[in-house]
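Please, structure for the following, as tokens.
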Amino acid sequence: MQRILIVDDDPSQRRLLEHVVGRLGYMPETVNDGREAVGRLLRPGAEPIDLVLLDMVMPELDGIGVLQSLRPTHPNLPVIVLTAHGGIDGAVRALKAGATDFLVKPVPRERLEVSIQNALQLNALSGEVRRLKHHLQTATIGDGLIAESPEMRRVVAMARRASQSNIPILLQGESGVGKEVVARIIQANSERVGRPFVTVNCAAIPENLVESILFGHERGSFTGAEKRHLGKFQEANHGTLFLDEIGELSPPVQSKLLRALQEGEIEPVGGAAAVKVDIRLISATNRDLQQAVARGTFRENLYYRLNAFPIVVPPLRERLDDIPALAEKFMREFAAAEGKTVATIAPTAAAWLQAEPWPGNVRQLRNTIFRAVVMAAGDQLTEADFAQVGAPPTAAGGAPPPAAPAPPAAPAPPAAAGRIVPAFDAEGGVRSLSAIEADVIRLALDH
């Protein structure tokens, strides 16, 4: 039950307000004057007060004095000021001092009830806003990036430092390490929070559509352009544009991108005039762009423009302290999604997770946990669950579990159309998903 403190030097007013507050479903508490009210509210260990009904005119310490004493330590406590002396000046003074509302005695019960409800609801909503702001500022890591290791703590510290300016950022690291999550942390901690965050995978765009997708096009500018398209730069206007795998862009597109960054404007395909854009650019690559510059496949001036603030995201094998927390996070996520009761990871299975090299990094770990959760029969992920997905642990802490039956040998591939992509390597272990995908793509191209 919400507790309301009644502060009034008039005994009859205290009794009246106490009766009304109780009838409205709140727990009333009364004090005789302003000094007693301040002492009650600042007393360590006392029951918290949800709202104060405060008389304006009292001896020694009046309502304004009480508000001034409370606000440094109770900035969000709702206070409704009551006075027998109405007037604009008194109301303005009370509101400036931090009052939530100002009522003139005698206050009708209905008016007091509405004022109390509004003040409590406003305080609840303000608390939710403060919680969400705190979540964005300090808990963003929990949404997808674990930073238990010193290496990742340094990455997060750099990301937050970079977020306070509009400097272009280049995220470097192997595929699957979480570069996009770092980019989202930068956005969430910047002044552009709440504005568009637009992601472009440069490696996945057909060469003949890159300019249109990035910069937009006008209707009729080429065959198939049946309507105007804004493009990713304009979609991200006033927000953040994240260009993943930027090393895959062709030299002509690199030239246009450089001009867009230098001039702060783009030229849509078929457009008659340049369009101003205001974006925060974050780029990412798993390639060595310096080597690409040396080979002549990446523009040197664009590289230096993008690389103003480089952040290297280390591979998972170099931040082993992150693996237990990541594994638990993924386990809870997939257990909830799959309706499983899995709640813990066996120590031997956890040791194996930390001993693996994880060439596919966080993405590979996530998929491995997903498969193990699907196979799990109990409330704990064990060595057997990982063995069933082709990853038998041999971590310290006892003999390894029985090996899975050897897979049948793949038939010799007589032709591209009849080839089978093997799921197991020569030693009988399951091949990585990325390796299998690469073979499937090559098979499709050959066919």
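Residues 137-143, 392-418 have pLDDT under 50 and may be disordered. The CA atoms of residues 173 and 314 lie 6 Å apart.
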